[in-house]
Amino acid sequence: MADPLRDRFVVLGVSGSIAAYKAVDLASRLVKAGARVDVVMTKAATQFVTPLCFQSITHRRVVDDLWDRNSEMAVEHVGLAKRAAAILVAPATADLLAKMALGFAEDALLTTLLDTRAPVVIAPAMEGDMWANPLTQEHVAKLRSLGMAFVEPEEGRLASGLSGRGRLADPEAILGTLRQVLGRGGDLAGRRVVVSAGGTQEPIDPVRLITNRSSGKMGYAIAEAARDRGAEVTLVTAPTALAPPHGVAVAPVDTARAMHRAVEGAARGADVLIMAAAVSDYRVANPAEQKIKKRGEAADGLTIELVPNPDILQEVTGDFVRVGFAAETEDLLANAGAKLRKKGLDLLVANDVSGAGSGFGSDTNRVILLGRGGEIEELPILPKRAVADAILDRVVAILAGRGRGAGGRRWVETHR
Ligand code: CTP
User: Which of 203, 250, 288, 293 has the fewest C-beta atoms under 10 angstroms from its C-beta?
Assistant: First the structure.
């Protein structure tokens, strides 16, 4: 399944904040993601950025005047309001929020917003004290209560030179929320999906630890893909260098035992558990409380005793679709098949981590999907996001099969 932004009509509403220049970048990212972007600007916004600037990126006419007699504008705002799959307002000023909350319709943007039934995502930007002002907060609360989604401003240096919470949120945060909103009607809508990611860390002493080469990219891609398909996602993640995905509940953990507890809690009542994390099979029996010092004259070795960790996939019980990963360096199919049976999985994603373009740290992955009934699907090298969607295609089929009872269609039959 593709990016929820692809081929969707998105109205980008821009109001008069200095952050309007950042909306140009947003427009560009939206276009790159395949969205059809109609920009609607307030008069004040045009003081900061020209309509031509947006038009050059979107290749579509920019609407900035409700009363432009030369355009089809008299009806165009209605057209935009009805056609939009979603409306993103970024940046939204305090003035615009107030007018939206009161139902003003004095310009093209406000009219479009008042006239639409599409979901609305709002990314405010303003001086910190204006954002904190109880009046602004009251308007935000009102708009939230009407179902509008907010991507709150960030803390940082503001145009005034002062610091505070008022800076337009990071573009990926804004687009993540927009994707989540657009994905609500997806094939995982109403489903609760738990994903684990990253390599767990087992302490040896306060400064050293045992971990592995997992980057977390595969698990994060699955969490984002599930979010984009409408799922309510919990991502239980060991430490990674990745930015937490937006629109996903993130539970950070470090050790395998901490991950066990977090997954157990999150999986209660879940529809799907996908264990993409590389969980340390062993932990140090007695981690030292103080840093271990070099002993004697170097030649003396150091022995660390390891004890087994719980197998999370095997031990967390529940009526969810259970998906595991197998990272293998030899006898891929035989080892993976054995793992699927031993861990009682519905689906196993096997990857040969020794191959190029596959496995740890890579942006691509080459996997073989194994089903409970012996189904085997070999995928080519694909970006991790595409692998994530292929896994979720199978998960959706398994969920649908369960809904139809024991005679449900097996996913292998739906392939190709
Ligand atoms: N896994 C788990 N808990 C563990 C170890 C692994 O839940 N303590 C999960 C992983 O998240 C993955 C799957 O089990 O989805 C397979 O992990 P892997 O380490 O490849 O398999 P093991 O059963 O540990 O076998 P081996 O290390 O011998 O290959």
Answer: 293
